[in-house]
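We emphasize that the prediction below concerns an isolated chain of 206 residues; any contacts that depend on oligomerization or on bound cofactors are therefore not represented. The input was used exactly as deposited, without trimming of termini.
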Amino acid sequence: MKCSRLRCTRTVDPSRLKYGLCRKHWDAAEIPAQRVDAGPTQAHVAALLTLRWSYSAISSRTGLSRTTIRETTLVTKVQRSTEKAILAVPLIPYAGKNVLVDATGTRRRIEALSYLGHPLNSYEHRLGRCQGRVGKAVASGWVSAHIAAAMKRVYGELENTIGPSDLARKRALKRGFAGPAAWDGRDMDDPQARPLAPYSAVGRAA
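Result of the prediction step, given as a token string:
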């Protein structure tokens, strides 16, 4: 079988039959390889396993079979689509069905409510089954998606009201916490986002 390029008399490279090109024209065309070095994929899988992800969990997240994922650790090349799917899995701890998420947003909401005079212990009972676990989780840097959602709900209920604790307000000011108004138009869950200044949450709530 001859190369499909005009006036080329070379034989199609056996591994390029799909494209009908000889090796020279394949290289010249710069067609993206369908298989890529497995190194980055293997490193990502290894990192996920250390974060308590199982092959089954990775499979559920990526849509790939467990066999495919396991095989990535045994080969030198992987499908580009396989690499893309696995590298898209975030390197965060896995906690059963409830994957942990960055605690930044939850911490900021606690700080903003403290700025208004709402210390955590004054509303933690409103967090349902998360009560008693929020502070410790935030300190670890990770919270469950359930805790994050519960904190968002309670924050929405309290962000426009002055709390009962003057001491909480004073401590928040001393520590430089940002109030709710400082986050207007900002994504509190984005670690890269920064609050507006000067902060005027108490004035707004009043």
